[in-house]
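Lab meeting prep.
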Amino acid sequence: MEKARLVYVLHDIQVGGVEVALISAIPTLYRNFDLNVIVLGKIDNRMVANLSDEQKSCFKTFNYPLITYPATLPGIAYYIVRLRPKILVSSLWRASLLGVMVKKSLPGLTFISFVHSTTFFHKLDKLFTKAALRNADHVFTDSTATSQFVQKELHGSTDVTVISFFIQKSPDEKVNAPHTGDVRFMFLGRMNKVKNLTLTVDTIMKLRSRGLNVSLDLYGPDDGMLKNLQQYIEQNQLGPIIKYKGEVNADQKAAAFNEHHFLIQLSSHEGMAMSVAEAMQRGLVCFTTPVGEIKNYADDMRTAVFANIWEDAEWEKSIDKIADVVADPAKYEQISTNCFRQFQNVETYSTSLSNAISTHV
């Protein structure tokens, strides 16, 4: 049986939630479809190192500076049109306008817009994403929260499907480090201002000022904040306590989860917040803002510890809560066990995405 031709368009292949999820699904998509992946930027070879040569051959890069986007876009669209895909998935804002152009050139194409955030980050994001949503046959989202955001923007006029964003099945047993009093926090994500990383540093300072022996390891790519963050760490003489460990691949990420007790995520905005969900899968207790999808899959003081970063008085109460859990191994263990059990039977991203696309072929 001939496989349907699928074109998947996204930005650079680098360390990030969307990109990591897609790479995890490539073997399944390659097996089930005639797959072509269009990358609007560079491919970090470390990200695709575990793919077969046949799977790597599905990728085609168009690495042009963003300023040349208006001039280069028609040529990329023409390349895709010549592939004659049956299905096109656009992921992230730069891919959205490209998807619209191809859809208008191939009316019989099934066009799927994949949305990953509960906010628009800038004017072009809003313009291109809303154009894709108006022209898409179907919309995929990474969470219920993102789905609600899309429905609000579209007034409920388009079919929306939530895709599971769990890259791996949960382990059979909890694998996080046992709580022994020497408590290790981790952050996993881009070094970006939306993550409120200076507030993350402040959290560690506040906990240490209460006599709690806590440390913090930072994992993820620099997205413009790393230099200022490192200066802030040094200004507060926290160099031995807070360390930047760089980007991590899948194996290194799993090892990091095993070595820590808490994950901290104080973002102002999130979609699915993969790092939080994956940490909870493994039994780490997450100190997190209840933004995006987090408030739908975590419960304060049952499966996570919620932080209110918007009001000074509530922020101090949040510090009291996390300090209480850090200081009480029994309370920590109860929350850890609750969050681990909650995610033991999740569907993986690769299965969820492949099945959702297949229903629209």
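Slide two material, second protein:
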Amino acid sequence: MTLSERNTFFRAGIAFCAVCTLLLLGASFLVIPLYQEAGSGMFFGMEEELRRSTGIFQFLSGLFIGNDYFAVHVSLSALVLFSLVGIMLIHSYFERTSAPEIFYIAIFAICFSFEAIRLVLPLHSIFNFSSFYMRVALRFLLFARFFSVFSLFAAGVCAAGLEVQKTRNVIFVMVLAALVITLGVPIDVLNWDTSFNIVNGYSSMFTLIELAAFFTAMISFLIAAKTRGSKEYIHVAIGVLLVMVGRNILLNTDNWIGPLPGIALLSIGTVFICSKLHKIHLWL
């Protein structure tokens, strides 16, 4: 992929993220009044109480504070805004710098815009649209999540020595893998948790897949630090760890303890990754 083609992709990503941000803003005017009427029990037309969301941080914070749908809205909104701001900064920072890994980091950032789809749950109580459309929307969300994880994995493998000329092949494999997982997951549109996440089948197995992809990305950057003789890749690996933790918090938190550390870790980790990659490739 040439520098011109990559920058065109960045600009298209900015446009897409901007549209998602506007859609989020419009949906917010509709759903925020619902949060004021909702308790922690029956909500959005669900027949049963929503389950508390999962995750280590969420489990610990959930012991001390109950769920708050405003906090969930802030968390998913932060992810969508992060996606827009992130891709804009990546385009500005790397417009004239060739860094093969940053293409995959950009995909990772863009995919957070799909988190706006989680608002399909409260919107359903307003428009009562068909469960078919909910199921399609949720599969798009699952695809985006796995595609983003695989993108970060590809960035690490690229740093460790993957040939740049194989970018299209890598994208094809990533799309295929994400599709296989997404289409194979059983989805029950009536089974949600308090962070507006669908409770899908095989969740433990897919959590392990995500963790394996993240840690493989970290290890790949550490390998790159040794093989390329650049300690900056160690900081990139640290950034991947921070991003992983921040992402997990923002995806699963359902109370006010989560948004601030989640946003901070995700932002700091991304700055670590981008600034160090820029420094590595600036003089190449």
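Talking points for slide two:
The chain has a mean pLDDT of 87.
The chain has ten helices and no strands.
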